[in-house]
């Protein structure tokens, strides 16, 4: 359960009192989903909100970028939650000693087994966001880009072999391959970078919300599609690829934004990079999450299996 920091009812009531018109506290519950931040579902006499307290991987210095990004996307009509401003115009607060935001609640549920129609809707939502970001001037370096993967692999070191014998060698070989094949001249943009099904809220077959922008950064734009493809088009354990989901997702994206020949040609390399990113962050968490933490660790090997698929399918979007 992702509640690292407890917030008392008194602290919460004092926080809500800073805002105009949000109403009085009725109830607050810790949200079990998620691994990165502490999230509470807050009901007031007027409405429902999410309270997020930023933990380990979110740098407070990046919060103004994330908030400006959400404001920009919401202003363009994308279904993303804004951070609410208090009477002084402040969107970032301190709660229980952590940086925190009170955030609009969006309806919908995240699907665990997407259909092709839902994958197409996710692809369209991603393309629509990329279109809306064409005139966004914010910029944030990707600390989990190709240079970051090298650093993370080095920090995991020999311990990778404790997850699976031989994993350290596989990761080193993959990094070497990516160093040679990584596309350096594709269009860049601010991207979501973590558009897993659990970060897309759906009502039926329609996307009602896109959340969790805390890895958003400036990257190769088509890498965002590769991340989304790796996240949406396989069984959870990475064992089975579902071509119908892949075709629907990419079709939805191409229909709403487009994909150049160069981006299509580079797609397998981008997807391998996406897999390595999640393999490594999951491996790091696997090795460093205390046994008594109330968090379910995610399986790094599920992204090794995806990586193997992309490596064996170099003509995926040809
Ligand atoms: N604006 C929102 N509207 C509705 N529900 C939300 C909103 N933000 C978060 N949630 C709910 O809270 C859960 C956790 O949020 P989120 O995915 O942002 O957490 P996280 O710890 O950053 O997770 P992750 O492990 O995916 O990085 C979501 O799965 C969703 O159920
Ligand atoms: N979406 C990521 C967690 C956030 O980086 C994963 O499933 O590994």
TrEMBL record:
InterPro entries: Aminoglycoside_PTrfase, Homoserine_kinase_II, Kinase-like_dom_sf, Pseudomonas-type_ThrB
Sorted UniProt keywords: Amino-acid biosynthesis, ATP-binding, Kinase, Nucleotide-binding, Threonine biosynthesis, Transferase
GO molecular function, one term: homoserine kinase activity
The UniProt record lists the keyword Kinase: yes
Keyword Kinase tagged: yes
EC number in record: 2.7.1.39
Segments forming domain Aminoglycoside phosphotransferase: 28-252
Pathway(s) served: Amino-acid biosynthesis; L-threonine biosynthesis; L-threonine from L-aspartate: step 4/5
NCBIfam families: PRK05231.1 (NF003558), thrB_alt (TIGR00938)
Family per record: Belongs to the pseudomonas-type ThrB family.
Name the UniProt record assigns to this protein: Homoserine kinase
């Amino acid at each position: 359960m992702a509640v690292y920091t407890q917030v008392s009812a008194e602290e919460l009531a004092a926080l809500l009192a800073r805002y105009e018109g949000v109403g009085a506290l009725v109830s607050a519950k810790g949200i079990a989903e998620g691994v990165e931040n502490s999230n509470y579902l807050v009901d007031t006499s007027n409405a429902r909100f999410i309270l997020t307290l930023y933990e380990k991987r979110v740098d407070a210095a990046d919060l103004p970028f994330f908030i400006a990004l959400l404001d920009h996307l919401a202003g363009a009509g994308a279904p993303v939650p804004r951070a609410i401003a208090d009477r002084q115009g402040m969107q970032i607060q301190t709660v229980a000693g952590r940086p925190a935001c009170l955030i609009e609640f969006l309806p919908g549920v995240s699907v665990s087994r997407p259909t092709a129609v839902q994958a197409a809707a996710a692809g369209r939502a991603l393309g629509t966001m990329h279109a809306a970001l064409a005139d966004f001037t914010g910029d944030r370096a990707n600390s989990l880009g190709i240079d970051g993967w090298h650093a993370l692999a080095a920090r995991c070191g020999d311990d990778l072999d404790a997850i699976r014998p031989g994993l350290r060698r596989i990761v080193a070989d993959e990094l070497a391959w990516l160093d040679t094949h990584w596309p350096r001249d594709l269009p860049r943009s601010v991207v979501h970078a973590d558009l897993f099904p659990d970060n897309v809220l759906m009502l039926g077959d329609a996307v009602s919300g896109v959340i969790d922008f805390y890895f958003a950064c400036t990257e190769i734009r088509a890498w965002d599609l590769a991340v989304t493809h790796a996240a949406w088009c396989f069984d959870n354990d990475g064992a089975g690829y579902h071509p119908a989901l892949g075709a629907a997702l990419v079709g939805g994206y191409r229909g709403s934004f487009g994909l150049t020949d160069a981006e299509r040609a580079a797609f397998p390399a981008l997807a391998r990079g996406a897999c390595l990113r999640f393999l490594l962050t999951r491996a790091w968490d696997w090795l460093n999450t205390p046994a008594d933490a109330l968090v379910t660790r995610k399986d790094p090997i599920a992204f090794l299996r995806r990586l193997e698929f992309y490596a064996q399918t170099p003509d995926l979007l040809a």
